[in-house]
Amino acid sequence: MSLRHALLGLLSERPASGYDLLKTFETSLANVWPATQSQIYTELTRLAGSGLITVAAEGPRGRKEYRIADEGMAELRHWLTEVAPQRNTRSDILLRVFFLGVLRPDQAHAYLTELIAMSEEGHEQLRQLHDSIDWDDDNLSVYGRIALEYGLRFQAMRREWAEWAADQIKPR
Amino acid sequence: MSLRHALLGLLSERPASGYDLLKTFETSLANVWPATQSQIYTELTRLAGSGLITVAAEGPRGRKEYRIADEGMAELRHWLTEVAPQRNTRSDILLRVFFLGVLRPDQAHAYLTELIAMSEEGHEQLRQLHDSIDWDDDNLSVYGRIALEYGLRFQAMRREWAEWAADQIKPR
DNA sequence: AGTGTCATGTAAAAGGTTACATGATTGG
DNA sequence: CCAATCATGTAACCTTTTACATGACACT
Questions:
Q1: Which of B19, B67, B72, B109 has its CA 20 to 30 A from that of A7?
Q2: Same domain, A99 and A154
Q3: Least confident window among A4-8, A49-53, A58-62, B76-80
Q4: Which positions in chain B touch A102 (Cβ < 8 Å)?
Q5: How far, rounded to the nearest angstrom, does the alpha carbon of residue A6 sit from its chain's CA centroid?
């Protein structure tokens, strides 16, 4: 149930509409917590229903601007400090690695080569994202930069690992 | 729908019962694709129903040993070579980082310190797993070792990043 | 006048988690 | 004979994905 906390987190910075939040998810937050349009609107309605956020203003085209309520801030802080993060994540990229033995060695090698390329592209995309953002000193900037640094290091680590792995199976 | 491919992949090595597969998920595969008992049994029944696997033998206590069928092998190869892996994964650990600004600096710092410890523990667990496995030359060993190396590098990368990140916010 | 973007909502299906339920066999 | 382990199954619920559906406003 982290989507609700992702929304609370974004609303803790500034009020926003579902549409605004959707755009944020498509750019920055997509890398750590992808969410679809339908999911976001549904969850916002539910959050408003349970009083964690409120409709602060209504604009043209039915736009509803949500604002975080005190209860929402409390819930966000509770999640950040008390709820243990999940240890195990899913990675279908890694899952495939376990079963590369059913392929011919050249196919297995090709898969790892693809991962090298994927990691390079990912790294480059993050670099461009970093350059395109107008960083300032607010919270999302400070911690967004730290999260982005994680992404850069992650992609670099994966590229190096994939290069090493491709090398492991090439000689056979 | 990667669970079905995880099961096909394990059965491509050797026939196994739901219980056997559950044990494998609890140890080695848990790190890349956690699955529950109920999920595994349900999916096995479905896979047998669609003919991708067959019940090869029945043992004591209602044990059913499943064997992969040719159609299952074909599906597994198709997934490995043709289906594009998913780029974006979810990480509630990283998601929290974006919102650490709502906490006091010492609380944010404590969160990152916790991540350092978590990464060290994860690294140590994988090291022990590596030592406890009786590695041989079969496919799962070769590629399992490569996957495990990924895990070790990942935990090391995360530890270093968390140390760097904790350092970033300490001076404020 | 028409296109693109802004803007929201809902329904169905698939995937995943938690909990309940049951019973056979083995080893001490 | 008792406990641990082996062994399977199902139901309810929550989360996520995909698809459908609608319309207002701004700009050219």
A1: B109
A2: yes
A3: A58-62
A4: 9, 12, 73, 76-77, 80, 139
A5: 10
Instruction: Return the number of other C-beta atoms located less than 10 Å from residue A82's C-beta.
Output: 7
Decide: residue B49, CB within 10 A, 0-12 exposed, 13-18 middle, 19+ buried. exposed
Structure tokens at B67: 């064997």
Question: What is the model's pLDDT at position B119?
Answer: 97
Q: CA B10, CA B14: separation in Å to the nearest integer?
A: 7
- B74 and B99 in a single domain? The answer is no
Split at pLDDT 50, 70, 90, the class of B171 is low
Check whether residue B121 and residue B146 sit in a common domain: yes
B54-68 in b/e burial notation, b at 16+ Cβ within 10 A? eeeeeeeeeebbbeb
User: CB under 8 Å to A60, separation ≥6 — which residues?
Assistant: none
Q: CA dist B72 to A8, A107, B145, Å?
A: 44, 19, 25
B65 and B128 in a single domain? The answer is: no
Q: What is the three-class DSSP state of A63?
A: coil
Task: For residue B125, give its domain range.
Answer: 92-169
Average pLDDT over residues B10-15: 96
